[in-house]
Amino acid sequence: MKANEEPHDFFSSMMFGHREPTSDNLKNEQREEEQDLAGTDQLLLILALIQAIQPIFEQIKPMLMSLISSLDNKKND
User: Fold this and answer.
1) Which of 21, 46, 47, 73 has a beta carbon 3.0–4.6 Å from 25's, enabling a disulfide?
2) 8 — alpha (psi -120 to 50), left (phi > 0) or beta?
3) Domain for residue 70, yes or no?
4) Has residue 4 been placed in a domain?
5) For residues 33 and 64, what is the distance between their CA atoms, to the nearest angstrom?
């Protein structure tokens, strides 16, 4: 049972029949689903960005390592 769903009431069901979800409940559920999908889309975009940038860092890594080494040598001198 979801948080916004009303608890099942046996007496009300017997007296008045099964209640259909209200339009407000349906709208809230649709909003929640859209927000979940939007979060998933953002996560996928971030992962795609990381995968696109990763090869660039691999190419730059040797230059940065040599720069750090040279700075350490100058610092020690």
Assistant:
1) 21
2) beta
3) yes
4) no
5) 44
